């Protein structure tokens, strides 16, 4: 397909007609992407980029089976859910079959933000409570109701931006958080923080409607909650008359490998009251869903207010959703997430041993974070270095992003067709670039041989989850490593994404 405009013309028109708060990746030199296939994206010159960040194109960009399902249904009918259609009920049946039995009622909507907004309405209607507990650095969407409960966003607006009905609990981060990997029971310790918030809220005459958390924090820095945390939080929240909302918008649909949903990493004894899903659900098609219990759904209906969504659950969206589920199963993408994810964690663990800039490796399946630090003992975030690295990776035609509260976490969340060859290529490139950066800044590390660690076994998570969850932070080796830096600056411009 011939392009209408040159890259410069496209950029000029974007600046003229698109709101300035709508940012692009690699702002200094943005990419113009014209097509994509599988785990690869192509620019206007035909250059191929390996996509390590796109968890929306879940089963791969432009998957032919998904495209065929969409086209076939679009040729027949697309209308709203007030008419009976088999696609809607068939998809609801297939989707709820992946969840615990009590999660059986669906509301189909169009984006993760819309799903989380509706989840708040369900929670508040259930017992008539209003207050919400959220986590540090959480992000749940861009609409007003969700900016209110997303510290990742509202903290940018100033110290008085938090609403009185919002209560922020510590992120259950065992690398950077209040309770770390050396705590005997960080799950209980972090859950107690939530309990304290509930007690203080009740003293002030307020009532908790919901606790909401991503099953694994993404924008918050690829944080994997310690096993048992959600169970304890749910117990305290239920006692207060609230519900537990698991936000699976970023991490659902088999990304963690062994389980279809990331909340299942906590164990079979944990079942949320509401689950929200989005991004990967339609492989790029705008759709999302809220799934809840019959009891909560009936409470919502008892308000007398009809819920209708013009596009939610339309036949085309449901056909696409069904196709995505079928591809995940037929191509064993969950198995691929486990195999490739474990291999990626192993390769990155080797980089932890080699490079003083690597402070922590954490992840499960194809959801992996690399925490870059200036000082391994102090865990000082290496923000500029992370941004420098992702720009250098772009020069090598690899797309990776940096996120977290300090923008120092390299985020891996690629399409689920990502291969071992892709993982090896990316890590080898990161290895070479980190070596260049460390040589340029004078950073050195000694006695690496004494610090060999496993990632896919011997997780630092208390209780030892059966899943292959890597969390390599080098706590046992800090005394042996003598890390120093002759210079702290990175030999390049500071850049933004």
| Major β-sheet profile | 7 strands, mixed
- Strand order within the widest sheet? 4-10-9-8-7-5-6
Number of strand segments: 19
Distance N to C terminus: 28 Å
Shape: globular
Output mean pLDDT.
90
Low-confidence stretches: 445-467, 474-497
Report the radius of gyration as a whole number of Å: 23 Å
Total helices: the number is 13
Percent range of helical residues = 25-40%
How big a fraction of the residues is strand? Answer: 15-25%
Class by alpha and beta content: alpha/beta
Describe this structure in words.
With 497 residues, this protein is an alpha/beta fold. It has 13 helices and 19 strands. It has helices spanning 7-17, 64-76, 86-96, 112-127, 144-147, 151-154, 186-203, 229-239, 294-301, 315-330, 333-354, 383-395, 420-441; strands at 33-37, 40-43, 48-51, 105-109, 131-135, 166-169, 208-214, 243-247, 274-277, 288-292, 358-364, 367-375, 380-381, 398-399, 401-403, 409-412, 443-444, 469-472, 484-485. It has a 7-stranded mixed β-sheet with strand order 4-10-9-8-7-5-6, with helices on both faces. Strand 15 and strand 16 (409-412) form a beta hairpin. Helix 2 packs antiparallel against helix 10 (315-330), helix 3 (86-96) packs parallel to helix 10 (315-330) and helix 4 crosses helix 9 (294-301). Residues 445-467 and 474-497 have low confidence and may be disordered.
């Amino acid at each position: 397909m011939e392009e209408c405009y040159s890259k410069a013309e496209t950029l000029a028109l974007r600046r003229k007609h698109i709101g300035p708060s709508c940012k692009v990746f690699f702002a200094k030199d943005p990419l113009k992407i014209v097509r994509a296939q599988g785990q690869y994206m192509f620019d206007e010159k035909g250059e191929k980029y390996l996509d390590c960040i796109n968890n929306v194109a879940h089963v791969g960009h432009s998957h032919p089976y998904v495209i065929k399902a969409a086209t076939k249904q679009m040729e027949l009918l697309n209308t709203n859910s007030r008419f009976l259609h088999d696609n809607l009920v068939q998809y609801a049946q297939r989707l709820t079959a992946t969840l615990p039995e009590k999660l059986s009622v669906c509301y189909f909507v169009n984006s993760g933000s819309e799903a989380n907004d509706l989840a708040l309405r369900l929670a508040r209607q259930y017992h008539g409570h209003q207050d919400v507990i959220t986590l540090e650095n959480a992000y749940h969407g861009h609409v007003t109701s969700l900016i209110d409960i997303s510290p990742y966003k509202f903290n940018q607006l100033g110290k008085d931006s938090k609403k009185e009905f919002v209560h922020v609990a510590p992120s259950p981060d065992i690398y950077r958080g209040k309770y770390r990997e050396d705590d005997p029971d960080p799950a209980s310790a972090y859950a107690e923080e939530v309990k304290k918030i509930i007690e203080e809220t009740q003293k002030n005459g307020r009532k908790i409607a919901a606790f909401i958390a991503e099953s694994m924090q993404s924008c918050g820095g690829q944080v994997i909650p310690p096993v048992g945390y959600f169970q304890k939080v749910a117990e305290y929240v239920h006692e207060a008359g609230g519900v537990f909302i698991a936000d699976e918008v970023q991490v659902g649909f088999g990304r963690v490998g062994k389980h279809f949903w990331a909340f299942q990493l906590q164990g079979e004894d944990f079942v949320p009251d509401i689950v929200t899903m989005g991004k990967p659900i339609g492989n790029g098609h705008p759709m999302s869903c809220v799934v809840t219990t019959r009891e909560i759904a009936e409470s919502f209906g008892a308000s007398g207010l009809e819920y209708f969504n013009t596009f939610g659950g339309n036949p085309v969206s449901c056909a696409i959703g069904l196709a995505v589920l079928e591809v995940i199963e037929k191509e064993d993408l969950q198995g691929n997430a486990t195999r490739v994810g474990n291999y990626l964690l192993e390769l990155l663990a080797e980089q932890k041993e080699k490079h003083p800039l690597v402070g922590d490796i954490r992840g499960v399946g194809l959801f992996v974070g690399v925490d870059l630090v200036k000082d391994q003992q102090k865990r000082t975030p290496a923000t500029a270095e992370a941004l420098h690295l992702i720009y250098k990776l772009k020069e090598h035609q690899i797309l990776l992003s940096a996120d977290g509260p300090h923008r120092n976490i390299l985020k891996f969340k690629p399409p689920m067709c990502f291969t071992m060859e892709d993982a090896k290529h990316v890590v080898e490139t990161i290895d070479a670039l980190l070596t260049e950066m460390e040589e340029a800044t004078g950073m050195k590390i000694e006695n690496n041989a004494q610090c060999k660690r496993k990632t896919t076994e011997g997780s630092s998570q208390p209780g030892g989850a059966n899943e292959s969850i890597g969390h390599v932070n080098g706590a046992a080796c800090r005394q042996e490593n003598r890390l120093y830096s002759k210079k702290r600056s990175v030999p390049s411009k500071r850049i933004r994404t």
